[in-house]
Automatic annotation (TrEMBL):
Gene3D superfamilies: Uracil-DNA glycosylase-like domain. It comes from Paraglaciecola chathamensis S18K6. Residues 2-143 form the Uracil-DNA glycosylase-like domain. CDD domains: UDG_like. This is Uracil-DNA glycosylase-like domain-containing protein. Signal peptide: none annotated. Pfam families: UDG. InterPro entries: HI_0220.2, Uracil-DNA_glycosylase-like, Uracil-DNA_glycosylase-like_sf.
């Protein structure tokens, strides 16, 4: 679960078709070919269309998409793990009033169902530099777990 398509993803009709997607696939340890293979990965954003530009980044995803479509779509798939990417997906699904940093710091409490991840956007480079344990601890564990599925 991600936020919503960015402008490039929206224009090309290809989710995660930007620098965020490159980093996400690196974190997952998978190729673009496998990432876009619907037999292995389901890509489900919180909002289904580009919400437009805000002062810093994109506007929040439209609120009606997730409650209208997610349950129906999720129930139609066989899902072993869900990646909650960024604050919007985590707040919607976890509803625990914690910050993204608190959730990601305590990522083990959400296992085995969820992996809680910061958004892989280059805008989060500062967060990643302040929290190197994420790429040193969480990412390798996630790669190991997900590698067992393929």
């Amino acid at each position: 679960m991600g936020q919503a398509p960015g402008k490039l993803a929206h224009e090309t009709n290809m989710p995660w078709n930007d620098a965020s997607g490159v980093r996400l696939r690196k974190w997952l340890g998978i190729s673009a070919e496998k990432f876009y293979d619907a037999n292995h990965i389901a890509i489900l954003p919180m909002g289904f269309c580009y919400p437009g530009k805000a002062k810093s980044g994109d506007k929040p995803p439209r609120k009606e998409c997730a409650p209208t479509w997610h349950e129906r779509l999720i129930n139609s798939m066989s899902i072993e793990h869900i990646l909650l990417i960024g604050q919007y997906a985590q707040t919607y699904y976890l509803n625990d009033k914690l910050s993204l940093t608190q959730r990601v710091t305590n990522w083990k409490r959400y296992q085995p169902k969820y992996f809680v991840l910061p958004h892989p956007s280059p805008r989060n480079n500062i967060w990643l530099k302040k929290h190197p344990w994420f790429e040193n601890e969480v990412v390798p564990h996630m790669q190991k777990v997900l590698a067992k599925l393929t």
